[in-house]
């Protein structure tokens, strides 16, 4: 148990944690939206993320940035990232929608109990993952380095690189966009209405099916954006990448308060930081265990998460 | 496309009706007949390794080993059925209990384990069951008050924690593993048994090259446990589980101590899981962290649900499919998970009560479907 | 149908195949045992192809008395290995195996195979403990990790002249074993160590730690699945330390995953001979037969199969006789000169640990590692 290491490198671990946590936060948004409205843990969301990572490599290769290519200029980098976000967001959103149509909607029509929904979600997740595995022959897919981390400044003794800043800012930007949409726009009001009470919302003229389609697309798009950030950071993807990220992201969503968009952001960032502290104290190999233990402890003492559930309330 | 679905649905309805017809005819048979049929069936199961049924025997790998695997998986399914099917708690980390049971036997019994004790197999197994039960209680105590969905995630986390622990701690020797896991006693086959094909007098009962002894042991344990769980199902405990499953708040109001019975379900499920782990690795003789990944846990849940949660025969069918099909059709092993994933989706839509459903469950689901709001 | 039943019953009764003399010695079989499917299939396929080349050549030269190669696909999974091993011992015609390929499945399968006298020659399972388990018919056609580890460390110390090494392992028994060996040999030269998780993809913290420690070299005990993203992220972050790893990383996929620029100059050790330096026409024959270059352990598998085949040709068509033959075998294969010790390991003088490097996106052989 190496507490000294953590104390010495507190700032560095925090920065790394915030970066990692930004990715968790974006993926968590998808979980929290779906759960807030449908009370369903969308297990397949992790595969939605995975598909986004592969889409990014494909679109980059199509644009000439394939294996062995050199990193382009700053403008080129931004262009590639934007293209990837659009493509991955669309692909992930589409995947999420397909899952909803094929796996969840028939169950909704039959008023199936929550256990059955969960089983179907697991089935969808496994099916998507294995299909990707079969297609890629279970081999990881590398991609050339897009951004080379360069230290921009130092805060409290921690070096902060441009890569880290970029990831944290992009995540915050996406989150602000989503939050504004849910809270200010008409469609967003519909989402909150259905989260609060589906039958009354239907009576008030909200098209429930369309709202559900919307949340799946939005959640998927956020996961797609996260996948681009992940690809830039890690540079490698494989068919099973979604699993662990998905679990962590769901933990983050629960941690912050499921159904609560702010909670997803807070939960994600917090989880990333705590995880890294834990890795520093106990060693890298126990990092995931730390995440799960955090989840259990939070659920024991605050079952509604840190910020409480609130997609359905007037203040999201 | 719709016409195809309709005809598939009608075919399935006919099959379901036929199954119910068989069931009614079965209940109307007089008791002695039923017992006779059961005994004949069990005798058939015991003699499967000796018969060499052409289509069923696995060409590439040893058939008796596959039978043993089926028996172990059925035991897992019976235990998981107690948790999911009877008590209605979704446990996604069942493999944790399996691992605890297996490692306890290995650590206490193997001369090569990091702990310097060597107990005989017959002592290790009850200890393994007890330790697994304890771990079930430890897991259940803080988490059973949580909502169903959260419980699923937490149990998933538990399964992972056990695996990471097995991988990284010294007592389990990580991926190096522990070999020479103890096997049941060193008895030899007596001469009066040699009429059965593949049995030789004077060769060890529990050997690695002729695994009939293991298969029969597992089969016996499975039958005993199934009978035991059946008794439990019909007792007060079973009725409480039913009440908890259908409506927990109402059950609590009616005076059922829900938490206590949920904990019992967890503990019994954990005990059965630990026992199956102990059995399997007694044959395998080598254990390492590689065998305990989360997907096996999820596959087990799938097998229970597809087979028919709540119905012991149903989950047994699900488990046998899970164990047998990949070994029989080894060319498709790579696609095994994919097929099960798709099967899960299809089953939940068309037949959520499972292949061999419990009658109560079918009625439950039909009632719910009737209540569906017109969307 | 009846014949099948009788035949199967007879076969099943025959599971002490060691002392039955078959009437004709011309239906012998040897088995390949390893992963042909699953994430690690490539190694198994290399081995199967090497063995197949040997068997095909033998059958061409001995057309009236052929040997069959049976393939047992374990997917590298110990759980499947046990059932497969049982089926091998129950087929009295299978006299020996090329494999099991991986150390994990060996631990399960070897006791089963050995107890019934099946001759085991593994071309790739390098875990030192395998020869100490008491499996009498076990043989290893290459050096084990106990020679690869020190070989790599000595190469680092004497040839690369490193001063400060950071040792990383992945908690697998192969990786940790190798890393431990390196740590022992480098002793005071190790300034830090770390453990990575299986399937880990994000190494930000580890990279930071290594950079802070000022290490001039890294030793990686593990597989390419984690090594590739690590090296990529390490170089991206400006890490300049030299990268050394074992045979679990030696594969073109490593260069692809890390990127040719990041992987450039990496040193990979392997107790396997570079196929192009293998004797005879092996490399060319392999390419003609399969259409691609021979890869890791193909040559070792070729040699292992040939030893078994030579034994069968000399008339040792029972398991016991073949075992005696292999125990006392001395001869020149394409990889090295073979002579087995009592515990099945190859004679130490025959062990060759080679160092390879990544140059221009390709893995090329450098030289043998020093032995002291």
From TrEMBL, chain A:
<keyword id="KW-0997">Cell inner membrane</keyword>
<dbReference type="GO" id="GO:0042941">
    <property type="term" value="P:D-alanine transmembrane transport"/>
</dbReference>
<feature type="transmembrane region" description="Helical">
    <location>
        <begin position="115"/>
        <end position="135"/>
    </location>
</feature>
<feature type="transmembrane region" description="Helical">
    <location>
        <begin position="77"/>
        <end position="103"/>
    </location>
</feature>
<dbReference type="GO" id="GO:0015190">
    <property type="term" value="F:L-leucine transmembrane transporter activity"/>
</dbReference>
<feature type="transmembrane region" description="Helical">
    <location>
        <begin position="155"/>
        <end position="178"/>
    </location>
</feature>
<dbReference type="GO" id="GO:0015808">
    <property type="term" value="P:L-alanine transport"/>
</dbReference>
<feature type="transmembrane region" description="Helical">
    <location>
        <begin position="48"/>
        <end position="71"/>
    </location>
</feature>
<feature type="transmembrane region" description="Helical">
    <location>
        <begin position="289"/>
        <end position="307"/>
    </location>
</feature>
<feature type="transmembrane region" description="Helical">
    <location>
        <begin position="236"/>
        <end position="256"/>
    </location>
</feature>
<dbReference type="InterPro" id="IPR052157">
    <property type="entry name" value="BCAA_transport_permease"/>
</dbReference>
<dbReference type="GO" id="GO:0005886">
    <property type="term" value="C:plasma membrane"/>
</dbReference>
<feature type="transmembrane region" description="Helical">
    <location>
        <begin position="263"/>
        <end position="283"/>
    </location>
</feature>
<keyword id="KW-0029">Amino-acid transport</keyword>
<feature type="transmembrane region" description="Helical">
    <location>
        <begin position="211"/>
        <end position="230"/>
    </location>
</feature>
Automatic annotation (TrEMBL), chain B:
<dbReference type="InterPro" id="IPR001851">
    <property type="entry name" value="ABC_transp_permease"/>
</dbReference>
<feature type="transmembrane region" description="Helical">
    <location>
        <begin position="294"/>
        <end position="325"/>
    </location>
</feature>
<feature type="transmembrane region" description="Helical">
    <location>
        <begin position="94"/>
        <end position="113"/>
    </location>
</feature>
<feature type="transmembrane region" description="Helical">
    <location>
        <begin position="148"/>
        <end position="166"/>
    </location>
</feature>
<dbReference type="InterPro" id="IPR043428">
    <property type="entry name" value="LivM-like"/>
</dbReference>
<feature type="transmembrane region" description="Helical">
    <location>
        <begin position="63"/>
        <end position="87"/>
    </location>
</feature>
<feature type="transmembrane region" description="Helical">
    <location>
        <begin position="263"/>
        <end position="282"/>
    </location>
</feature>
<feature type="transmembrane region" description="Helical">
    <location>
        <begin position="337"/>
        <end position="356"/>
    </location>
</feature>
<keyword id="KW-0472">Membrane</keyword>
<feature type="transmembrane region" description="Helical">
    <location>
        <begin position="205"/>
        <end position="229"/>
    </location>
</feature>
<feature type="transmembrane region" description="Helical">
    <location>
        <begin position="119"/>
        <end position="141"/>
    </location>
</feature>
<keyword id="KW-1003">Cell membrane</keyword>
<dbReference type="GO" id="GO:0005886">
    <property type="term" value="C:plasma membrane"/>
</dbReference>
<protein>
    <submittedName>
        <fullName>High-affinity branched-chain amino acid ABC transporter (LivM)</fullName>
    </submittedName>
</protein>
<dbReference type="Pfam" id="PF02653">
    <property type="entry name" value="BPD_transp_2"/>
</dbReference>
UniProtKB/TrEMBL annotation, chain C:
<dbReference type="GO" id="GO:0006865">
    <property type="term" value="P:amino acid transport"/>
</dbReference>
<dbReference type="Pfam" id="PF13458">
    <property type="entry name" value="Peripla_BP_6"/>
</dbReference>
<dbReference type="InterPro" id="IPR028081">
    <property type="entry name" value="Leu-bd"/>
</dbReference>
<keyword id="KW-0813">Transport</keyword>
<dbReference type="InterPro" id="IPR000709">
    <property type="entry name" value="Leu_Ile_Val-bd"/>
</dbReference>
<protein>
    <submittedName>
        <fullName>Branched chain amino acid ABC transporter substrate-binding protein</fullName>
    </submittedName>
</protein>
<keyword id="KW-0732">Signal</keyword>
<dbReference type="InterPro" id="IPR028082">
    <property type="entry name" value="Peripla_BP_I"/>
</dbReference>
<keyword id="KW-0029">Amino-acid transport</keyword>
<feature type="domain" description="Leucine-binding protein">
    <location>
        <begin position="29"/>
        <end position="344"/>
    </location>
</feature>
<comment type="similarity">
    <text>Belongs to the leucine-binding protein family.</text>
</comment>
């Amino acid at each position: 148990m190496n507490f000294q290491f953590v104390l010495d490198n507190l700032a560095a671990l925090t920065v790394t944690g915030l970066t990692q946590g930004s990715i968790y936060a974006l993926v968590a948004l998808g979980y929290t939206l779906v759960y807030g409205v449908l009370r369903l843990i969308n297990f397949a969301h992790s595969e939605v993320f995975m598909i986004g990572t592969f889409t990014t490599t494909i679109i980059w290769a199509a644009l000439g940035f394939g294996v062995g290519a050199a990193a382009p200029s700053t403008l080129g980098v931004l262009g590639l990232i934007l293209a990837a976000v659009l493509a991955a967001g669309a692909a992930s959103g589409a995947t999420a929608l397909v899952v909803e149509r094929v796996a969840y909607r028939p169950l909704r029509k039959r008023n199936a109990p929550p256990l059955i929904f969960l089983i179907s979600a697991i089935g969808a997740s496994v099916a998507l993952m294995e299909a990707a595995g079969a297609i890629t022959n279970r081999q990881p897919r590398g991609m050339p380095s897009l951004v080379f981390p360069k230290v921009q400044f130092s805060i409290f003794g921690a070096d902060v690189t441009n890569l880290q800043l970029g990831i944290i800012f992009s995540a915050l930007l996406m989150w602000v966009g989503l939050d504004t949409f849910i809270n200010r726009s008409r469609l967003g009001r519909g989402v909150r209405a259905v989260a609060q009470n589906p039958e009354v919302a239907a009576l008030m003229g909200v098209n429930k099916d369309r709202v559900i389609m919307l949340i799946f697309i939005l959640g998927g798009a956020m996961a797609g954006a996260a996948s681009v950030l992940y690809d830039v950071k890690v540079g490698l993807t494989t068919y099973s990448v979604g699993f662990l990220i998905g679990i962590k992201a769901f933990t983050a969503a629960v941690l912050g308060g499921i159904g609560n968009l702010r909670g997803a952001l807070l939960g994600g960032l917090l989880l990333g930081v705590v995880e890294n502290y834990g890795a520093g104290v106990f060693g890298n190999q126990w990092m995931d265990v730390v995440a799960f233990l955090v989840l259990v402890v939070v659920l024991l003492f605050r079952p509604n998460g840190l910020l409480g559930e609130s997609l359905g309330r007037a203040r999201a | 496309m719709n016409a195809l679905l309709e005809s598939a649905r009608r075919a399935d309805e006919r099959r379901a009706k036929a199954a119910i017809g068989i069931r009614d005819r079965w209940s109307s048979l007089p008791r002695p007949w039923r017992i006779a049929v059961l005994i004949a069936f069990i005798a058939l199961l015991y003699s499967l390794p000796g018969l060499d049924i052409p289509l069923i025997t696995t060409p590439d790998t040893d058939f008796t080993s596959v039978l043993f695997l089926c028996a172990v998986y059925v035991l897992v399914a019976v235990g998981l059925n107690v948790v999911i099917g009877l008590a209605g708690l979704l446990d996604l980390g069942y493999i944790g209990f399996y691992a605890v049971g297996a490692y306890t036997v290995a650590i206490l019994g193997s001369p090569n384990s990091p702990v310097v004790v060597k107990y005989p197999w017959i002592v290790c197994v009850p200890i393994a069951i007890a330790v697994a039960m304890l771990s079930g209680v430890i897991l259940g105590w803080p988490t059973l008050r949580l909502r169903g969905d959260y419980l699923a995630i937490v149990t998933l986390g538990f399964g992972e924690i056990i695996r990471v622990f097995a991988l990284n701690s010294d007592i389990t020797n990580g991926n190096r593993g522990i070999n020479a896991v103890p096997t049941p006693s060193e008895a030899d086959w007596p001469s009066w048994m040699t009429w059965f094909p593949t049995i030789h007098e004077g060769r060890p009962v529990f050997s690695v090259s002729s695994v009939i002894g293991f298969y029969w042991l597992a089969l016996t344990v499975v039958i005993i446990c199934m009978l035991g769980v059946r008794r439990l199902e019909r007792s007060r405990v079973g009725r409480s589980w039913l009440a908890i499953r259908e409506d927990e708040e109402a059950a609590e109001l009616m005076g059922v101590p829900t938490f206590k019975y949920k904990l019992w379900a967890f503990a019994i499920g954990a005990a059965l899981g630990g026992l199956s782990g102990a059995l399997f690795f007694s044959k395998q003789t080598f254990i390492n962290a590689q065998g305990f990944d989360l997907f096996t846990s999820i596959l087990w849940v799938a097998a229970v649900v597809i087979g028919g949660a709540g119905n012991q025969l149903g989950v047994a069918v699900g488990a046998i499919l899970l164990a047998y099909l990949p070994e029989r059709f080894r060319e498709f092993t790579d696609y095994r998970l994919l097929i099960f994933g798709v099967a899960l989706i299809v089953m939940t839509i068309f037949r959520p009560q499972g292949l061999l459903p419990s009658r109560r469950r079918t009625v439950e689901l039909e009632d719910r479907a009737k209540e569906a709001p017109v969307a | 149908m009846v014949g099948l039943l009788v035949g199967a019953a007879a076969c099943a009764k025959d599971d002490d195949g060691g002392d039955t003399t078959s009437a004709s010695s011309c239906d012998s079989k040897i088995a390949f045992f390893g992963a042909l499917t699953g994430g690690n299939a490539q190694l198994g396929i290399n081995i199967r192809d090497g063995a197949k080349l040997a068997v095909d050549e033998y059958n061409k030269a001995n057309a009236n008395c052929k040997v069959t190669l049976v393939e047992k696909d374990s997917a590298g999974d110990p759980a499947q290995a046990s059932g497969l091993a049982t089926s091998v011992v129950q087929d009295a015609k299978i006299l020996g195996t090329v494999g099991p390929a991986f150390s994990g499945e060996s631990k399960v399968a070897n006791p089963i195979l050995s107890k019934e006298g099946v001759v085991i020659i593994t071309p790739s399972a390098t875990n030192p403990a395998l020869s100490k388990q008491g499996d009498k018919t076990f043989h290893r056609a290459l050096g084990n990790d106990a020679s690869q580890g020190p070989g790599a460390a000595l190469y680092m110390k004497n040839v690369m002249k490193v001063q400060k090494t950071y040792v990383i392992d992945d908690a697998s028994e192969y990786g940790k074993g190798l890393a431990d060996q390196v740590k022992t040999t480098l002793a005071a030269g190790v300034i830090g160590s770390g453990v990575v998780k299986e399937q880990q993809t994000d190494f930000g913290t580890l990279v930071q730690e290594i950079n802070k420690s000022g290490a001039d070299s890294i030793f990686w005990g593990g597989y390419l699945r984690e090594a590739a993203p690590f090296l990529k992220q390490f170089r991206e972050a400006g890490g300049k330390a030299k990268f050394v790893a074992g045979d679990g990383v030696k594969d073109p996929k490593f260069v692809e995953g890390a990127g040719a620029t990041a992987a450039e100059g990496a040193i990979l050790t392997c107790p396997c001979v570079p196929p192009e330096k293998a004797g005879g026409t092996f490399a060319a024959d392999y390419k003609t037969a399969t259409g691609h270059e021979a890869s890791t352990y193909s040559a070792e598998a070729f040699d292992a199969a040939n030893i078994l085949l030579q034994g069968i040709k000399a008339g040792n068509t029972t398991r016991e006789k073949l075992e005696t033959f292999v125990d006392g075998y001395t001869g020149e294969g394409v990889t090295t000169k073979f002579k087995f010790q009592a515990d099945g390991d190859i004679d130490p003088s025959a062990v060759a640990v080679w160092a390879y490097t990544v140059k221009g996106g390709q893995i090329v052989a450098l030289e043998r590692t020093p032995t002291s």
